Amino acid sequence: EHSSWPEQRPPELSTRSSAKEMQLEKPLRTRIVAVSALQLEHVQAFKDMALEYYNWLDIDLTFQGIEQELAGLGCYAPPNGFMLLASTAPEGLKEDDEPVWTHVGIVGIRPVPNYEPLPGADKIGQHEQKRTCEMKRLYVQPRAQGLGLGRALVQASLQEAAKIGYRRMVLDTLERLTACQTLYAKMGFEQIEPYYHNPYPSVIYLAKDLELQPGQPIEAAESA
């Protein structure tokens, strides 16, 4: 049973919300941080951006339990899951100025649910399931694309997942998201058979074995 994260305002899945159009001030510094239950603003930012991602995809994800997922975020709760938040801040601040971070991207890692696989699917055995995690909701706002944040989120996810004991990561993506497929291929993901039932025909399933050695801590994954 997953623990629940603090619930702020409930998600409004029926409300269309487009990616924010406000332009980012450049040049920029970027960072990736772990979302803590103690940082309510970060928890709410993850929920808001996950809803933005859902609307950007423009497909019905109710079969995945998206409403319940966003209501509590329990599937991403430690110690077996985590959420990452990508942010940007303007460069050139004075030494004593505190940077104002703008949240522009997210990703969540969770244990693989007890999916009912398709006949002949890439079924994840009980022992392997405990060592396998699933990447969900990788999203970078259009205004922040081109800064390397998608790659940074994936890299931080791989490192942190290995550090907490996972040895394999799986995910699914849509055929039309060609930029995502290119990124995943560059990061070492390989296509596999479906590991759960998805009603959409144009879905690609990917997996990657994780490195055994720990990676750079999330807190240090900041670039100036």
Describe it for me?
This protein is α+β, with helices and mostly antiparallel strands. Helix content is 24%, strand content 24%. It is built from 5 helices and 8 strands. The chain has an 8-stranded mixed beta sheet with strand order 6-7-5-4-3-2-1-8, sandwiched between helices. Helix 4 links the parallel strand 4 and strand 5. The longest helix has 18 residues. The N and C termini lie far apart (40 Å).
Strand content: 15-25%
Count of β-strands: 8
Spans of at least 5 consecutive residues whose pLDDT stays below 50 are 1-20, 214-224
Rg (C-alpha, Å): 17 Å
- Overall pLDDT score: 81
Q: First CA to last CA: what distance?
A: 40 Å
Spatial order of strands in the largest sheet: 6-7-5-4-3-2-1-8
Helix tally?
Answer: 5
* Global geometry: globular
Helix content: 10-25%
Order of helices and strands: EHHEEHEHEHEEE
Largest sheet report: 8 strands, mixed
Structural class by helix and strand composition: alpha+beta
Which features does this protein show?
single chain, 224 residues, alpha+beta, 8-stranded mixed sheet, 5 helices, disordered N terminus, disordered C terminus
Question: What is the topology?
Answer:
Elements: E1 28-34, H1 40-57, H2 66-72, E2 82-90, E3 102-111, H3 126-130, E4 132-140, H4 149-163, E5 168-174, H5 178-186, E6 190-192, E7 203-209, E8 222-223
Parallel strand pairs: 4-5
Antiparallel strand pairs: 1-2, 1-8, 2-3, 3-4, 5-7, 6-7
Give a short overview:
The protein is α+β, with helices and mostly antiparallel strands. The chain contains five helices and eight strands.
